[in-house]
Design goal:
Elements lengths: L1 H12 L5 H22 L9 H13 L4 H20 L26 H10 L6 H16 L3 H5 L6 E2 L4 E5 L5 E5 L2 H18 L16 H12 L10 H14 L4 H8 L4 H22 L6
Helix pairs in contact: 1-2, 2-4, 6-8, 6-10, 10-12, 11-12
Length: 295
């Protein structure tokens, strides 16, 4: 459908969605278009109905696709059909009668502070550019809670050593300021002494030894390798470090609104999920400490 291409262009150039989000929207809508063509023999936008969409959802459920993935696809369709209504391509929104499947709530996966301290204090990184860079990346994830895409897009101008802060550009190009503690600043200085002769004092902060932009897979493999030393959980990604940062901040008494601002959440509800981890921790302490807690 030509409308899908126009919609993706709108998200990219007007709404300034990230590459990752654009890829997800494009994939979701193309999958839906294939379903309509092969299962419903429909190719025109104004022929799409609510029952057709529900049939697609049922098909995905029968195939065992995770409810979270299905809900993401529903979000893609809702945004697409809302845009189609706005442009007059359709007169009835077929998503109005579509209900999202319920998703069981999952607590954010995180690594306990003691394990993170052990990892960061005991790990010996190789001397030189790559070892210094990799240590900084690991410390930066755990010390700021930033997302992987945010770290990869950091520019030299975003770092303010004198003010001890970092300007981070998050989702929807929304910018926020994150404070840096002294040990992180020291790691930054060590890294920049090795980085600047390679690529100069401008452009992206994190690069390869050849001065090329760092790529997401490398960062993911780095974090997974390091977290494997202290964690056996299946998820060992940069986002786990983001969760670990937020959980530990909350456990140490940080204000929920302050954590929200540092993480770059649009709504407090997204940050409140970390309170469940703290409640779970209190529950475990209670069971162990209270004389009748194990009954």
């Amino acid at each position: 459908m030509e409308a899908i291409g126009n919609f993706i262009d709108y998200l990219e150039f007007e709404k300034r969605f990230s590459i990752h989000t654009l890829k997800a929207y494009r994939s979701d809508l193309q999958q839906f278009a294939i379903f309509l063509r092969t299962e419903e023999q429909v190719e025109k936008l104004d022929e799409i109905s609510s029952p057709m969409i529900r049939s697609w959802l049922v098909k995905m459920m029968e195939e065992g696709i995770d409810p979270r993935s299905i809900n993401r696809k529903i979000t893609s369709l809702k945004t697409f059909f809302k845009y189609s209504m706005k442009n007059g391509w359709i007169t009835i929104n077929p998503m109005l009668k579509v209900v999202s499947p319920k998703v069981p709530k999952k607590l954010p996966v995180y690594v306990e502070a003691q394990k993170m301290d052990f990892l960061l204090d005991s790990t010996e990184f190789p001397a030189g550019f790559e070892g210094t860079r990799d240590r900084l990346i690991l410390e930066l994830f755990y010390g700021t809670g930033m997302r992987r895409a945010e770290l990869l897009s950091l520019l030299m101008e975003d770092l303010d050593v004198h003010q001890k802060q970092l300007k981070v550009t998050g989702k929807r190009n929304k910018q926020r300021i994150i404070p840096l503690h002294d040990s992180l600043l020291d790691l930054f200085r060590q890294y920049l002494e090795l980085r600047n002769p390679i690529v100069g004092n401008d452009a992206l902060v994190f690069v390869t030894p050849q001065g090329k932009p760092l790529y997401p897979e490398l960062v993911y493999r780095l974090v997974k390798k390091q977290l494997s030393k202290v964690s056996t959980q299946s998820k060992r990604s940069p986002h786990v470090l983001r969760h670990s940062f937020a959980t530990e901040m909350l456990n140490q008494g940080a204000d929920l609104n302050a954590i929200k601002e540092i993480l770059g959440h649009a709504n407090l509800s997204a940050t409140q999920v970390y309170t469940h981890n703290s409640i779970e921790k209190l529950r475990n302490v209670y069971k162990k400490a209270h004389p009748r807690g194990e009954e």
